[in-house]
Write a sequence for this structure.
């Protein structure tokens, strides 16, 4: 059972590293709209731009990332957290990162960044 869990954690770790590696080395994003709201209705939602923001962050374009969507910062933070948890399983740092307090902070940050994004969308529309 333990070896299956270890294998599962290793697979997840490899997938996350592969995705981050791909985003980091790719010179541009594929032009595929991921959001149904934007694709079918032409209406941007509060999470539109997270993929582009994450890509810009991985390429060191912090300002562009913030302008696309601040939640992109949170996505990278959550992925980094997951990488640490998977790499240091049962370590004190890993247990702290999985605590409810960290979850609450991440959720509050998500709401805050979502509000910032929504507020900017309203300002841009007027
Ligand atoms: Zn969207």
């Amino acid at each position: 059972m333990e070896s299956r869990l270890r294998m599962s954690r290793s697979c997840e770790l490899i997938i996350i590293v592969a995705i981050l590696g791909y985003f980091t080395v790719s010179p541009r994003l594929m032009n595929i709209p991921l959001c149904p709201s934007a694709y079918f209705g032409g209406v941007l939602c509060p999470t539109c731009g997270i993929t582009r923001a994450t890509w810009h962050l991985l390429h060191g374009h912090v300002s562009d990332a913030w302008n696309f969507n601040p939640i992109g910062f949170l996505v990278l933070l959550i992925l980094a957290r997951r990488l640490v948890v998977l790499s240091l399983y049962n370590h004190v740092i890993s247990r702290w990162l999985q605590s409810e307090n960290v979850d609450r902070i991440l959720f509050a940050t998500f709401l805050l960044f979502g509000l910032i994004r929504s507020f900017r969308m309203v300002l841009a529309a007027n």
Residues 35, 37-38, 44-45, 47-48 surround zinc ion (CB under 6 Å). The radius of gyration is 17 Å. The chain is about 75% helix and 0% strand.
